[in-house]
Structure formats: C-alpha cells, structure tokens
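In response to reviewer comment 3 from the previous cycle, which asked for concrete evidence that the modeling workflow produces usable outputs, we include below a single protein chain processed end to end. The sequence was submitted unchanged, and the resulting structure tokens are shown without manual editing.
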Amino acid sequence: MTLLKDSGLAVGPGMRLPISGATTLLFAALIASGFLFPNHFALATQILVLMIFALSYDLLQGHAGIVSLGHAVFLGLGAYSSAILARAGLTDPLLGLAVGAAVPALIALVLSPIVVRGNDFTRLLVTLGVASLVYEAANRLRDLTGGADGLSDFEVAPLLGLFAFDFEGRTGFIYALATFFLVYLALWRVTNSPFGMALRGIRENARRMPAIGSPVARHLAVAYLLSGAVAGIAGALLAQTSRFASLDMLGFERSAEIVMVVTLGGNGHLAGVGIGAAAFGVVKDALSTVSPRYWQLGLGIVLMASVFLARGGIGGIIERLSRRRQP
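The workflow returned the following structure tokens.
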C-alpha cells in the first residue's frame, strides 16, 4: 500500500467516468453481442479474456513504455493458480480470480528490479528469458501443472453460489463481461491519475523525469506489478470458463500475439486497445474457419495493412475523428 501511495496512484473522488463515444460504443457492442449471437458465448468469452489481457499489456507498453516478449507468463500463472486452487477443493470463482491476480502480481514484484532497468533491447531479452524459464519449469512440474497435458480435472463452483457455469457458456460470458468492465474502469482511473501522467512522462523521456522529482524506478515497478495482476485476472478467467490450463497459455506465441493486438488497437488508448482486441479475435476466428491451414497468412496480411493504413492504430483513428468533431 505504501508503494502505491508513494507512486501517486491515488485519484480524486470527483473524477468522472470515461464516457466517451468510443467507450460507449465498445460497451454497447459487448452487451449487444450477448443478445445478437446467443450461440457464440464461448467465442465472445475468449474475446473478452483477450481484451483484458490486451489492456494489461497496454498499461505496460502503451503507458509505461516497457516492452516485453514474455507477458504471457502472467496470463499462464493466473490460469495455473486458479486451476490448482480449484483442484485443491477451493472452487469459488471469485477466490480463484483473486488468487489468479495475486500470484502473478507477486512474481512481477520479484522480477521488477531486473525488468525496469536497462533499455528496450535488454528488457526484451530479460522478459523472453524469464518466459522460457517459467515455461520449462511448468513443463517439468507435471504433478502440479500436468505438464504438456495441462490441467482439466477441476471444477468451478457456481458464481456467487447461484449461477452455475452452463454448457452454453452464458454464465461464463456474463462473468467475463462484468470482469472486463471493472478492469477497464479501474485502469482508466489509474492511467488518468497523477501516477498515470507520470508513466506517460517516463515513456516520453525517462531521463528528464527525475529532474522534477519523479521516482522512475518505483513508478515502473508499480506499473509492472499492476500489469501482471491484470494479466493474471485474464488467465484465471480463461481457466475458469474453459475448465483448462495449459502450457500454451505461457507460450511465446501468446506474448507475440498480444504485442500485435495492442499495436493494432493503438498504444496508450484504452478504448482503441479494447476494440482492437475484439477485432483481432473476430478476424482470427473467421480466418481460421475459412482456412484452418492458412489462416495465419490472412491474419498477417490484415495486420500489415492495418499498420500502413491506420497510423496510430484504432486509437489513432478515434483521436483524429474526435478532433474533427470539435469546433
């Protein structure tokens, strides 16, 4: 708590909610999807998990300027923590979500001294190395993680003791949707607090921030901790709604994918990142359905086109449209 307070994370009680046009559109589309596509709750839940994971990485890269090729470590740790807890008999989903956030946050706190120092190149190497070590450790600890087979022999209790996770995925979708809303609003408050402003200053010029009394290393450590916790929430949510935790959730492909998603959405723009993650999930599912063998080729073409045609990603487009509407 002292670390968060000293980092300027406190926000004013009168701060308004982020009711912008893009945010309203995003929230309305997510709610409407449950009514318009009742047969695709599982896909919608996976997209919501991807959106939460993308928001966690956007806090790290888009606001703090820390690049990482091992962010999936926190997703996987959140998934495994929740699954292992459920196997031990503690099947309450909210408890699993809390533990899924706490364990990655603790690991992020331990790793932060070696991650926040250095330049982008050293951070890429360090995060990639850490991801490789965690992946191999999870693969070898078969009694705990299930190794290459993963964990699927666990149950999740009804949400709030009332709503069982049904086969259609309706409860899982509502659970993921509520979690996304809470995470989005929490991150909006964080990024618009003095702490968030300081993070943007560090991203723009880390050398000048100490001159105005900003503790750069501390701010980056807190950002890394919060990012790990949010990614852990996404991982726990994924494990609970799919009843499965596997090495894939720790893999390099997940880390590389989330970098692409945030770039598509627009670094530092919460609504843009959310929309970008949803678009990425929909396009990926559509292409894999059309061509199960060559869908990655089509996805690569879409991503390359977005880089050349959408400067600043979806968030950049939103900002340019907002400026045009102003008198």
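The chain has 14 helices and no strands. We consider this sufficient to address the reviewer's concern, and the full set will be provided in the supplementary archive.
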